[in-house]
Amino acid sequence: MTEAGVLVCDAQELMRAGLRMVVDGQSDLAVVGEAGDGETAVAQALTLRPDLVLMDVRLPRLDGISATAQLRAALPETRVLVLTACDRDEYAYAALRAGASGFLVKDTPTAELLVAVRGVLRGDAVIAPSVTRRLIDRYVTGAVAPLADKRLDVLSDREREVLGLVARGLNNAEIAGKLFLGETTVKTHVARILAKLRVRDRIEAVVVAYESGLVRPGG
Predict the structure, then answer these.
(1) Pick from 22, 24, 17, 56: nearest CA to 38
(2) Which PANTHER family does the UniProt record give (predicted)?
(3) String of b and e for 181-201 (b: at least 16 CB within 10 Å)?
(4) Model pTM?
(5) pLDDT tens by residue, 38-61
(6) Is there a single domain that holds both residue 30 and residue 116?
(7) Exposed site from 62, 156, 199, 218, fewest CB < 10 Å?
């Protein structure tokens, strides 16, 4: 089995040691490097080209959000899972807009963290449950007015339907079951949606769905 390389970026040495222990204890994961500040994180990523970066928000020299944006621009194939001690909405949204594929609080149980890590590596979007509801409320209940997005016009009716289900957190298998489609067909639809919306991954597609008003409460 090929191990996925993980770069651990956290301002606290003790936290880095704990994450290393968790990651290296898995047969399919391996820590390839560590960083204690944002600038080092970006430099390490450019050198090591990890599959995944575990990124702290509050980093010296360059904050985790800015580091995520730089890293994703330079290494679009590298996924970023942001970890923070505080589940503030502005951190979560900024992280997702910067290109992170997930956002979790640091007190997430180890088993759930590993599920999130593997989900992000598969291309899924992972957001802490404590944040998800507030983000949805913010973008689909009127707290922020929907923004017209012409990119949605190029989607077929089926693709819009699939995007709506992706935005509600369903994975490919669940979407396949709900729409009575094959899972391979759903994967094809998702790939076409990402290409047509010109977004890097599912989490950016979800943000588009929320901001445009495609997803609405109870809809």
Answers:
(1) 56
(2) TRANSCRIPTIONAL REGULATORY PROTEIN NARL-RELATED (PTHR43214:SF24), TWO-COMPONENT RESPONSE REGULATOR (PTHR43214)
(3) beeeebeebbebbbebbebbb
(4) 0.70
(5) 999 999 999 999 999 999 999 999
(6) yes
(7) 218
